[in-house]
Amino acid sequence: MMEQSEVEKAIQKAYECATDAASKGDLVKALEIAEFSISVHGKDNACCLLHVIQGDVFRKLASLTKNSDFRCTYLLGCVECYSRSAPLFSCSLTWNSFFTFALFDLGKQLSSNVYYSKAIHRARQGLSLQNPVEMLDPQRFPEVSIDGERKVLEELIAVAEAEMNSGAKKNVLDSNGENEAIPMSDEELQKGAEKGEEERETIDAKRLRSFWERMSVQNKTDFLMADIRKLKCFVEKKYGGEMRKILERILDFRRTKGTWSFWKCNLCSEEYLGSVEWKRHIEDKHAVKSKPLKDLIPEIDESASEMISSMIWAPVDTVKATDMIRNRTVSGKGFHYNKGWCRDWPLVADVDRELVIKEIGQIVISVAEDKILSSSLWNWLKEFIHENIELDGIHRCCLIDCGLVNTPQCLCFLRHDQLQNILGYLRLITTDLSVGVVSRAANLSWEISQVKDNIHIDEKFLGLLVRSYVDQFDDEGKVKDTSVLRHHYEYMIRWGDEIVSWLLSCPPDNSVFAFQNHNFDTWLAVLRIVECKCRKLETAYKRKLSMQPYSKGLVEVEKLCDEKKNLPKTSRLYLTSYADFLILKCLERVGKDVRRSDDTKGFLSVVRDVLEEQRTPRFEVLRVREYMKCIYEQRGIDDDSVLETFSMLKTQFSDKIRLLDTKILLNENSRIQLINGLQKLSFEDYRLLLLPWLNSFLREKLEKMVEMDDKER
After folding, report:
1. CB of 697 closer than 8 Å to CB of 231
2. What is the DSSP letter of 346?
3. Secondary structure class of 636 (helix, strand, coil)
4. Nearest C-alpha neighbor of 549 from the set 457, 622, 625
5. pLDDT above 70 for 181
6. Whether the Cβ atoms of residue 54 and residue 34 lie closer than 8 Å to each other
7. DSSP string for residues in 297-344
8. DSSP letters along 379-419, please?
9. Which of 432, 431, 444, 434 is nearest to 65 (CA)?
10. Per-residue pLDDT at 367 exceeds 80
11. What are 668-682's pLDDT values in tens digits?
12. Which helix (H) or strand (E) segment is 602 a member of?
């Protein structure tokens, strides 16, 4: 008990430090303090405090950034943090209010009814609290009042419902929106860039260019080679001893590892030269994915991919198609399909249908390529289309003879309203809005982290190679051909304006801080989103595992119904009703299974649902005695009701499995793509830190040379 108290004290102290850092505007520091304590005490419920402060910081970051993709990334991270704090704060009206606003902001940013619906649900959860317990720090939220919070939540529900019912098109946020600036971009860096632009036309700039043009070839070559010893002294004098140590560490890293770049885990500061090793570390330590049983992994319909990709997504003229079927039925001529597509079917110029069909095609092709198209979803799509095709006077068995049933081409026969229903359903179950925004944010960060200038290093000198010869280096920054150095310097000598312009665009002096903290906030937000996907995957697999006994029960009951149907008239059970027959089998099953296995309970659960005429499966687990009591009370159910109910339960169960399989595949695909985005955010290049120092060193060197030249003249 004493040890637990000490843990709570440590968490409380971390919370106070993080809160203090956030109040001073050091949001990255607040995240770091909270994350360090979470890594130490993560399993303790008191860590909910730290998740709350992280959620608050992410929400603040979202309000500060102008980039819509980064804003959504922070909000997604915020939502995950608030979700983790639920065990301690679900009875807090203030917490529910913060959570609601984060979800509402996501709904607004993504134009998503899904998040509007979640915001409404969370707001109603808050309003349902009879005696809310405010556990959040009253000093941080002095303006909060119970009545005021309730009124705000009621107003937000009204706004969210109005948005959902407005009829406005809801889709994924357009990446070409207000992506004008990098989130939390360093203002000094922007000012430095602007200053550099202006300085190019100053008198000093003209003096530097003029001097460069008058320099001898040998002096220019010598200038571009920075003496490492002198560079170390320069850095120590201008930036301090600690910066010199960092420089020495960077140079040692380059000499020993043979590269300037690496992938870093921002939680435990480990560095990896290869992305594969980095990914293995992340998945083993920080984004642990559960390993499900093989039987639980959804099957992917590989055969459908080839058919889908080779299709011409265009509407079929159903009137002419009907006549064609009749004529070919009489003549005996069949339909020839190539990879599931028959070019004999007549097309029609129907713009509305064509647009929807093509959009459905894009979704189906995309999910097939991303390995999201489960066999259960593909089979349902074919069955649904087959059941809804309406051709005047054509029996459904003729569609089988025409070869349409097992091809996606039958989609092109549907009406516009039927197509819209399919499109809406596919959008709902195959779209993960988080992947697009996070991927775009990660790509932008990746582009910013790419170094356009390279540095050649030997024992004594650092050789600067600016932009023009970057293609002469491999991915690790090694020179492919050493002769490129000489050619590059000759180029730089001829085009002196470029080197002078580069020297004038000197970055700010806080490059070390910018390098060490340039994207920790985004990195942590994406990690939270990845962890959310891992948790959803684990939940989905557990859900599917819990449904297995019911699935086996459906198979057994179906076999028993077939057995009852095929009983000979001489059998003593021939005149027994289906209900009594199933009850008899339940008694036999319970008598044989003294251990009361899960499979037996699943079988009894199906029989209970059938006899109680349930329209959807119930997966609650009862004791055998409770099942049998419910079953005995329903002995008088007629045979038609039994068969009809069983058919309905079987269909509903298939629907649930199909949705669950699609969610599993979608979350797994999202997890993979999000980790790829996190990988880009984890990429570090020491040249980002070294180039500003080298820039400053060479500029000062050139300015001194100019001053000496002026004195001599």
Report:
1. yes
2. P
3. coil
4. 622
5. no
6. yes
7. SPPB-HHHHHHHHT-----B-HHHHHHHHHHHHHHT-----BTTB-TT
8. HHHHHHHHHH---TT--HHHHHHTT-TTSGGGGGGS-HHHH
9. 444
10. yes
11. 999 999 999 999 999
12. helix 598-611
Confidence at residue 586, expressed as pLDDT on a 0 to 100 scale = 92
Please report, for residues 80, 94, 97, the alpha-carbon distance to residue 133 in angstroms, rounded to integers and kept in the order given.
Answer: 22, 9, 13
Is residue 115 classed exposed, middle or buried when 0-12, 13-18 and 19+ CB atoms within 10 A define those classes? Answer: buried
* pTM listed for this prediction: 0.82
* Distance (Å, whole) CA 185 – CA 66: 10
Rg of the chain on CA atoms, in Å: 34
Q: How many percent of the chain have pLDDT more than 90?
A: 35
The single residue listed with the structure tokens 């590989």 is 302
pLDDT at position 517, please?
56
Residues of the chain with CATH 1.25.40.10: 2-164
What is the layout of strands, in order, in the sheet containing 271-272?
271-272, 261-264, 683-685
Give residue-wise pLDDT tens across range 551-570: 999 999 999 999 999 888 88
**Cα 195-200-205 angle, rounded to 5 deg:** 120
The residues pairing with 462 across neighbouring beta strands, listed in sequence order, are: 226, 457
CATH 3.30.565.10 given to domain 2-164: no
CA-closest candidate to residue 73, choices 513, 342, 519, 437: 437
For residues 136 and 95, is the Cβ–Cβ distance under 8 A? Answer: yes
Indicate if the pLDDT at residue 585 is higher than 50. yes
Q: What is the tens place of the pLDDT at every residue in 122-161? A: 999 999 987 776 655 555 555 557 778 889 999 999 999 9
| Residue pointed to by tokens 């921002």 | 266
Residue 363 identity: I
Question: What does the angle CA 74 – CA 77 – CA 81 come to, to the nearest 5 degrees?
Answer: 135
Which 8-state DSSP code applies to residue 594? Answer: T
Q: CA-CA distances (angstroms) from residue 4 to 8, 33, 269? A: 6, 20, 28
| pLDDT of residue 168 exceeding 80 | no
Q: Are 372 and 430 in contact (CB under 8 A)?
A: yes
Contact 141, 53 (CB under 8 A): no
Angstrom distance (rounded) from CA 221 to CA 282: 45
- State how far the Cα of 472 lies from the Cα of 475, in Å rounded to an integer: 10
Report the distance separating Cα 508 and Cα 193, nearest Å. 9
- Rounded CA separation 651/659 (Å): 12
pLDDT band at 328, cuts 50/70/90?
Answer: confident
Q: What is the mean pLDDT of the chain?
A: 82
Q: Is the pLDDT of residue 214 over 80?
A: yes
Helix axis angle for 351-369 and 302-309, nearest 10°, is 140
Q: In this model, does residue 115 exceed pLDDT 90?
A: yes
What CA–CA distance (Å, rounded) separates 453 from 711? 33
pLDDT at 87 over 80: yes
